[in-house]
């Protein structure tokens, strides 16, 4: 406004001077005045361009999962078969690659012709848990590890949600972490001798190395010492592995951490045990379940991947050297059949650790070394102890030691795998000691959404390889036969 007032004052002064000139001239004729110069038009401000209409935000999408009972041997279907179910419906398992048999499709979405429809995906999943002849089509964010989610066209909807081909509206995960856990790895005795002769530390891992290394974290129970610098406490059953062979082999398969909570890591005494700790530390492979004293043995190991903090706790219930206040050993949790009855003080010490670390980590995985050898049936004390772990804040319990696979349990939201079986071992007295599963856990934003068993057989070269269809069905059937809840073999 200041500049506009200045211009007005200058205009008033000019008019007054012209009047004074006319008065001084009297009646003299006025001199002709030049025509005023044309005033150029004042340019007007350009009109603002209209704001572009914003594009609507794309609707969030989540994978559309095909789900079957946990004991179902079906693992994968083609994308063509999956889309046929969505477009045309299905009433026979032969449509999906299994032997012919009646099939009922259920869904929580109005898109599958002829399917039983439920408003709540949880109700559709409950039908799957109850019956072996049901296939559910639900948003992937509704599933949990009590059911089996099928791979479609080579893509798993939970482990690989971005590339998975079938989509529906829903909230996708912000972070996905994949954790693979294997059973007992024993690289001594005949296994170690074979690896040394072949000068190939990776040989026993090679058939599955790519799959193991593809996980964000790969963990196993290392059941041997890395040193024989001491007397063999268990005679001929004392296990030691050459670190020049064992450590490169583990690294070749992508192992990030090992549980040392077992009854063989201390087979050659304290000095060898301390050397084993040092060797793993120098190799950059995290360890837990054993330590230089009881506090270190009980301490959790937290590993961060894809923004998620995953904690591991190991316990040993067989006959390993227990850590003391000032002596090395394992995190002992005494219980049947070898060190029982259940030592409640030891169990409470571990559950306190679980409670504390559950406040620091997104997921807590407990790996107990427990149970009776050479049986598929878990001890009652295993189920009781798993309940204590779950109540303390564990998100999964993955056991080892029995040398055979054992049944699975579901305690609240916690999956309990009582025994994975041997992974690398030189046992050959039965088919069962050469069979096992490793598990692939998928974690969405701090929630375990899948615990998938992957069946294998150990060959004469001590290397595990994926089981063929018949062997896989046998192994999964052995697990279902002693499982409880949603993992038990359905009777209908």
TrEMBL record:
Residues covered by the Capsule synthesis protein CapA domain: 178-427
Stored InterPro entries: Capsule_synth_CapA, CW_Biosynth-Accessory, Metallo-depent_PP-like, TAT_signal
Segments of skewed composition (Pro residues): 32-61
Protein family according to the UniProt entry: Belongs to the CapA family.
Pfam families, A to Z: PGA_cap
Signal peptide positions (record): 1-30
Keywords: Signal
Protein name: Capsule synthesis protein CapA domain-containing protein
Region (Disordered): 32-63
Domain of life: Bacteria
Gene3D superfamilies according to UniProt: 3.60.21.10
């Amino acid at each position: 406004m200041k500049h506009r007032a200045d211009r007005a004052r200058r205009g008033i002064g000019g008019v007054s001077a012209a009047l004074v000139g006319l008065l001084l001239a009297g009646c003299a004729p006025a001199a002709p005045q030049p025509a005023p110069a044309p005033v150029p038009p004042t340019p007007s401000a350009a009109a603002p361009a209209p704001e572009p209409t914003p594009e609507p935000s794309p609707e969030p999408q989540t994978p559309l999962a095909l789900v079957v009972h946990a004991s179902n041997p079906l693992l994968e279907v083609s994308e063509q078969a999956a889309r046929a179910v969505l477009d045309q419906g299905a009433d026979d398992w032969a449509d999906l690659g299994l032997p012919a048999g009646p099939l009922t499709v259920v869904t929580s979405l109005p898109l599958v012709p002829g399917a039983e429809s439920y408003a709540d995906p949880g109700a559709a999943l409950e039908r799957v848990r109850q019956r072996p002849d049901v296939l559910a089509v639900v948003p992937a964010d509704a599933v949990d590890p009590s059911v089996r989610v099928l791979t479609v066209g080579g893509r798993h909807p939970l482990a690989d949600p971005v590339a998975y081909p079938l989509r529906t509206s829903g909230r996708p995960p912000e972070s996905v972490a994949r954790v693979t856990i294997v059973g007992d790895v024993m690289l001594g005795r005949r296994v170690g001798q074979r690896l040394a002769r072949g000068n190939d530390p990776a040989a026993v891992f090679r058939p599955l190395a790519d799959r193991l290394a593809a996980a964000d974290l790969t963990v196993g129970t290392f059941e041997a010492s890395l040193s024989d610098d001491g007397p063999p406490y268990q005679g001929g059953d004392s296990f030691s592995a050459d670190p020049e062979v064992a450590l490169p082999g583990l690294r070749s398969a992508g192992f990030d951490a090992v549980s040392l909570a077992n009854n063989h890591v201390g087979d050659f005494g304290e000095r060898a045990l301390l050397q084993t700790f040092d060797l793993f530390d120098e190799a950059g492979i995290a360890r837990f379940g054993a330590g230089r004293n009881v506090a270190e043995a009980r301490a959790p190991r937290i590993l961060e991947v894809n923004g998620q903090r995953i904690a591991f706790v190991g316990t040993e219930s067989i006959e390993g050297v227990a850590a003391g206040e000032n002596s090395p050993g394992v995190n002992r949790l005494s219980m049947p059949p070898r060190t029982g009855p259940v030592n409640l003080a030891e169990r409470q010490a571990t559950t306190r650790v679980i409670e504390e670390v559950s406040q620091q980590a997104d997921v807590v995985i407990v790996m107990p070394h427990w149970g009776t050898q050479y049986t598929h049936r878990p001890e009652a004390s295993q189920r009781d102890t798993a309940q204590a772990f779950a109540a303390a804040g564990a998100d999964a319990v993955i056991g080892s030691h029995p040398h055979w696979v054992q049944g699975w349990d579901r305690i609240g939201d916690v999956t309990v795998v009582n025994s994975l079986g041997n992974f690398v071992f030189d046992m050959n007295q039965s088919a069962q000691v050469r069979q096992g599963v490793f598990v692939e856990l998928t974690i969405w934003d701090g929630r375990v959404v899948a615990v998938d068993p992957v069946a294998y057989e150990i060959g004469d070269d001590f290397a595990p390889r994926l089981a063929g269809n018949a062997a896989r069905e046998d192994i999964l059937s052995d697990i279902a036969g002693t499982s409880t809840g949603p993992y038990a073999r359905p009777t209908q």
